[in-house]
């Protein structure tokens, strides 16, 4: 019998985390389950910093980016002592279950706590990066794409006016989901992702040749390359300088950064977050433990937390092939 659930948001915040919190609280309320929310990710758990969450507390948050519970990274949880301490707090507060909304790092944190905690643990995938196995999409990804797209479209205008090359760096840590999707939707001439191999300074010919071909075919015009962060060891600005030098054409870099994490969640993220929040509570009531609530082919599914960080999920192979064909043409 589950009577009390603890929830927290951890790691990079993602638009839609609030919608997930709301869905958890409303679903739990229907079953007379108390919910408490820890502040600042696992830090709030270690410090017993929390608030009770009632339906009125989550009434008007579905449209807000960020997370009402705040998020953080927490170094202490990397130690066995930290994990033990977290479990002690959960037991002291008589929590029957813990729901962690975050990325695969946060899920590893949840698994560490599970070594010492008797209650149930559930994960909900919340990260703009979409780099979690066991779910087609993570909460926040769809919004991040639209935010990136809005900016790339604007850069296209100025790039076209000056007939410049632009490198636009998008987030993703070590994955290219955001870059591939936003790059395709923006009509970028090239997309560079870690999945395609890391570019080295001595080996950027493959990147320059299509630019030169485009110059020959259509004359001077704008040329946009979307670059996933961590694709070029010296950084995207250094890559822009290298291209300018090599081609004698002005090349500018725009690092989009944390703007991609903010903003009101788009409809798809609100719906996904609501579905996964509700499903997580229902599955806890059915006894699920050490699982992530994900969505595959539009159906809610459970996926073992332990497998969520295996990085088996691939970039859409159809889009990758198409993009590489048009870039090399
Ligand atoms: N191997 C681990 N053991 C224990 N806790 C971890 C581990 N990896 C990550 N965490 C916890 O999860 C937090 C968030 O992880 P991080 O990788 O930064 O973000 P995300 O959850 O978005 O992937 C970390 O700050 C840490 O508290
Ligand atoms: O906000 P920080 O700590 O600089 O972290 C930046 C990283 O967080 C992200 O925005 C989100 O990553 P996580 O969800 O895995 O934390 C990455 O795309 C980026 O590399």
Q: In a few lines, what is going on in this structure?
A:
With 329 residues, this protein is an alpha/beta fold.
Please supply descriptive tags for the structure shown above:
alpha/beta; 329 residues; Rossmann fold; 11 strands; 2 domains; binds 1,6-di-O-phosphono-beta-D-fructofuranose; binds adenosine-5'-diphosphate; 18% strand
Report on the architecture of this protein.
There is one protein chain. This protein is an alpha/beta fold and 329 residues long. The chain has two domains: 4-140 and 265-307, Rossmann fold, CATH 3.40.50; 142-261, Rossmann fold. Helices cover 40% and strands 18% of the residues. The protein is built from ten helices and eleven strands. The strands form two sheets. It has a seven-stranded mixed beta sheet with strand order 3-2-1-4-5-10-11, with helices on both faces. A four-stranded parallel beta sheet has the order 7-8-6-9, sandwiched between helices. Helix 3 crosses helix 4 and helix 5 (141-162) packs across helix 6. The protein is elongated, with a radius of gyration of 22 Å. It starts with a strand and ends with a helix. Residues 11-12, 103, 105, 127-129, 171-173, 229, 261 line the site of 1,6-di-O-phosphono-beta-D-fructofuranose. Its cofactor is Mg(2+). It comes from Rheinheimera baltica. It is an enzyme of class 2 (transferase). GO terms for molecular function: 6-phosphofructokinase activity. Residues 4-283 form the Phosphofructokinase domain.
């Amino acid at each position: 019998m589950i009577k009390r659930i603890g929830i927290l948001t951890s790691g990079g915040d993602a638009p839609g985390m609030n919608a997930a919190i709301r869905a958890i609280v409303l679903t739990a309320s229907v079953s007379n389950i108390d919910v408490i929310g820890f502040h600042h990710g696992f830090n709030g758990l270690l410090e017993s910093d929390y608030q009770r969450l009632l339906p009125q507390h989550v009434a008007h948050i579905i449209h807000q980016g960020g997370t009402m519970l705040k998020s953080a990274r927490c170094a202490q949880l990397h130690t066995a002592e930290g994990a033990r301490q977290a479990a002690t707090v959960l037991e002291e507060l008589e929590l029957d279950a813990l729901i962690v909304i975050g990325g695969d790092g946060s899920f590893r944190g949840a698994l560490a706590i599970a070594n010492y905690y008797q209650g149930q643990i559930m994960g909900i995938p919340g990260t703009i990066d979409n780099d979690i196995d066991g779910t087609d999409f993570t909460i926040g990804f769809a919004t991040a794409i639209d935010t990136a797209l809005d900016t790339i479209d604007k850069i296209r205008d100025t790039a076209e006016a000056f007939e410049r090359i632009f490198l636009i760096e998008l987030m993703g840590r070590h994955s290219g989901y955001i870059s591939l999707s936003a790059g395709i939707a923006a009509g970028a001439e090239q997309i560079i992702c870690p999945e395609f191999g890391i570019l080295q300074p001595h080996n950027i010919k493959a990147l320059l040749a299509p630019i030169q071909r485009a110059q020959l075919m259509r004359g001077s015009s704008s040329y946009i390359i979307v670059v996933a962060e961590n694709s070029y060891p010296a950084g995207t600005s250094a890559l822009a300088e290298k291209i300018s030098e090599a081609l004698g054409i002005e090349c500018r870099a725009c690092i989009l950064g944390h703007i991609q994490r903010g903003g009101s969640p788009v409809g798809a993220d609100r719906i996904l977050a609501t579905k996964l929040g509700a499903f997580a509570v229902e599955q806890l009531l059915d006894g699920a433990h050490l699982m992530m609530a994900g969505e595959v082919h539009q159906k809610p599914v459970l996926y073992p937390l332990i497998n969520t960080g295996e990085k088996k999920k691939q970039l859409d192979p159809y889009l990758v092939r198409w993009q590489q064909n048009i870039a090399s043409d």
